[in-house]
């Protein structure tokens, strides 16, 4: 059973990202404020759930949360400012978009750039510990997956309907054959090494 909160003095938002290690597409982040004591039997780290479970939980989270927001930073900005800074930016945008101002932020992972003086706590593997981070992980993941399915229609050969932009064998083979498209992160050095010329 996940913990419902880190502290009880302030309104608390859980924050997580999706797509940080992908070859293509934006990085997404979500911030979620759940009611005190919120529990759900399926709620867990999004990576531990199947897609239908995540989709069902997304509806529950959007209905039951006190506030939620999802934001993204696209591949062009990722290339311009680097993936770490882009992740912070997406997280900050999600917090800014919340209908309630949190007094405490719980962030999945080990690093975060402070946001407007709101106290924050970085929790390694927090999406498997705290309900609000798990909820954020599910929103970030489902929104990003939905976006990549949309991009897949224009570029079906990369297999984004299944790999969602991650560097699977299918994706790497397609890059070797077709090259990069406008949605690839050019700063990730993902083109195969050029064969030597003799």
If helices are DSSP runs of H or I spanning 4 or more residues, what is the number of helices? 6
CATH class value: Alpha Beta
Superfamily at the CATH H level? Answer: Ribonuclease H-like superfamily/Ribonuclease H
Taking the sheet with the most strands, its summary is: 5 strands, mixed
DSSP strand tally: 5
What letter string, H or E per element, gives the SSE order?
EEHEHHEEHHH
Which ranges are low-confidence, i.e. pLDDT below 50, for 5 or more consecutive residues?
Answer: none
CA radius of gyration is 18 Å
Shape: globular
Terminal-residue CA separation:
61 Å
The proportion of residues in beta strands is: 15-25%
Strands in their spatial order, largest beta sheet: 3-2-1-4-5
In CATH terms, what is the architecture?
Answer: 2-Layer Sandwich
CATH fold naming: Nucleotidyltransferase, domain 5
Class derived from helix and strand content: alpha/beta
Percent helix range: 25-40%
Describe this structure in words.
The structure is a single chain. By secondary structure, this protein is an alpha/beta fold. It has one domain: Nucleotidyltransferase, domain 5, CATH 3.30.420.10. It has helices spanning 51-64, 75-81, 83-96, 131-152, 160-163, 169-178, and strands at residues 12-18, 27-33, 67-73, 104-108, 120-123. It has a five-stranded mixed β-sheet with strand order 3-2-1-4-5, sandwiched between helices. A hairpin with an 8-residue loop joins strand 1 and strand 2. Helix 1 packs across helix 4 (131-152).
């Amino acid at each position: 059973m996940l913990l419902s909160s880190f502290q009880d003095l302030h309104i608390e938002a859980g924050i997580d990202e999706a797509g940080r290690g992908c070859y293509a597409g934006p990085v997404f982040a979500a911030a979620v404020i759940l009611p005190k004591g919120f529990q759900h039997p399926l709620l867990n780290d999004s990576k531990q759930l199947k897609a239908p479970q995540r989709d069902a939980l997304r509806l529950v989270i959007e209905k039951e949360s006190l506030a939620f927001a999802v934001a993204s930073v696209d591949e062009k900005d990722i290339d311009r400012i680097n993936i770490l800074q882009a992740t912070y930016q997406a997280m900050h945008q999600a917090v800014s978009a919340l209908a309630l101002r949190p007094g405490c932020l719980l962030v999945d992972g080990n690093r975060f750039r402070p946001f407007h003086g709101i106290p924050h706590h970085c929790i390694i593997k927090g999406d498997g510990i705290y309900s609000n981070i798990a909820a954020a992980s599910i929103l970030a993941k489902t929104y990003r997956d939905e976006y990549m399915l949309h991009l897949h229609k224009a570029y079906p050969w990369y297999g984004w309907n299944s790999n969602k932009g991650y560097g699977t064998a299918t994706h790497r083979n397609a890059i070797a054959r077709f090259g990069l498209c406008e949605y690839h992160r050019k700063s990730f050095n993902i083109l195969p090494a050029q064969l030597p010329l003799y």
